[in-house]
Each structure stands twice: as C-alpha cells, then as structure tokens.
Design a protein that fits this description.
The two termini are 22 Å apart. β5, α3 and β6 form a beta-alpha-beta unit. This protein has 186 residues and is an alpha/beta fold. The mean pLDDT is 93. It contains 4 helices and 9 strands; from the N terminus they run βαβαβββαββββα. The relative contact order is 0.21. The strands form 2 sheets. Strands 4-3-2-5-6-7 form a 6-stranded mixed sheet, with helices on both faces. α1 packs across α2. The structure holds inosinic acid (IMP). Inosinic acid binds next to β5, α3 and β8.
Length: 186
C-alpha cells in the first residue's frame, strides 16, 4: 500500500512551505551580505530538504556544510543523548554560521550543537529551524528564524522521518495512530 495511506492529515502544505521559506530567505537577505558571507550548516538528516530550498532562495554568497547528529532511533521520544555521526568538513573559526535545523522539540539537540559550535569560535551563530514545538521545550535555546510553530504531535515529511521513512513526502503531515501502534519498537 502507498505510504500516503499512512498519513492522517496535512499540517503544512507544499504551497505554505514555499511561501514561508521565501519569507525566511528575505529575513536572512536583510542580515547577511557578500562582504562577510555565512556558512549554512545543515543538520542531517532531517534538514536536507529545507536546506535545499533555503539555499536556492537566499541571494547572498554562502558556503554549505553538513553535520549529522544522532536521532532517537526508531521511536518518537527524545533520549536526551546526542552524538555527532558526521562532523563539519570546514573550520568555522571567525566565520558567521547559520545552523539549519528541521525541528526544535525538547531543545536538547540544539543545545548540544550550540555548545559544540561555541567551542569552535565562530564570529556569530544564528539558528534557522523549519519547525518549532515550543510546548515541548526542556532547555531554553535561541532560535532566530522559525518557519512554523507546530502543536505537540509527532510530525513527518519534507525531510522529517518516522523510523527513517516518509522523508520524501513533500509536505509536513501527521501519521495515523495505528502506524505507531503497529511499529515493533516504540
Ligand atoms: P530535540 O532534541 O527534542 O529538540 O529534538 C530534535 C530532533 O528530534 C530533531 O532535529 C528531529 O530530528 C527529531 N524530532 C523531534 N520531533 C520530531 C517530530 O515530530 N518528527 C520528526 N522528528 C522529530
């Protein structure tokens, strides 16, 4: 059966994503210039699609780099344990950095990333997150560019997975409850 049958409803449509990302790019265009260009750091895997759209919408010169951070395994809950699976290829010392995240939930992952970046002595660090779930926050973390605030529900699509699936769904959605119930590990 098609994976689309697993989806209960659409939370953020393709059109809404396009419009909002164009607006976020405008906010960034007002802050960054070719004279002192930033590095956009994509947090893998969830932010890959957001990064791909954002990088094509901003008009300033910039470099891209990638960092992969461990997720929750197959479940939907945060363990609070964060590991770097893939580190940056470039040095960010003295550079402006924009961290590009898919979603800030409890904030543990971003808190870890920000502390890790601070040690690398960048000129500045700002955070762009496509989605924000403020109701779930356990650690206070700064987010400078937010696409959408979402309710306390597990969301998927547009890069975000459930058990490594659904990343290719072109919008943000919520799965049917039986999809989680049937999962062996959760
Ligand atoms: P945090 O550490 O709890 O803030 O979680 C951050 C990471 O958990 C995100 O970068 C996502 O990879 C993952 N995550 C949190 N909530 C969701 C969700 O609703 N759907 C998919 N992934 C999520």
């Amino acid at each position: 059966m098609s994976m689309f049958n697993d989806i209960e409803r659409v939370l953020v449509s393709e059109q809404e994503l396009r419009d909002r990302i164009a607006a976020l790019a405008d906010e960034m265009n007002a802050l960054y210039s070719d004279d002192d260009p930033p590095i956009l750091v994509c947090i893998l895997k969830g932010a890959f699609m957001f990064l791909a759209d954002l990088t094509r919408q901003v008009s300033f010169r910039h470099e891209l780099d990638f960092m992969e951070i461990s997720s929750y395994g197959k479940g939907t809950k945060s363990s609070g344990i964060v590991r770097i699976l893939l580190d940056l290829a470039s040095s960010v010392e003295g550079r402006h950095v924009v961290i590009v995240e898919d979603i800030v939930d409890t904030g543990h992952t971003l808190d870890y990333i920000l502390r890790n970046f601070a040690a690398r002595k960048p000129a500045s660090v700002r955070v762009a997150t496509l989605l924000n779930k403020p109701s779930r926050r356990e650690v206070d973390v700064p987010v400078h560019f937010v696409g959408f605030e979402v309710p306390d529900e597990f969301v998927m699509g547009y890069g975000l997975d459930y058990a490594e699936q659904y990343r290719n769904v072109p919008y943000i959605g919520v799965l049917k409850p039986e999809v989680y119930r049937e999962a062996p590990e959760n």
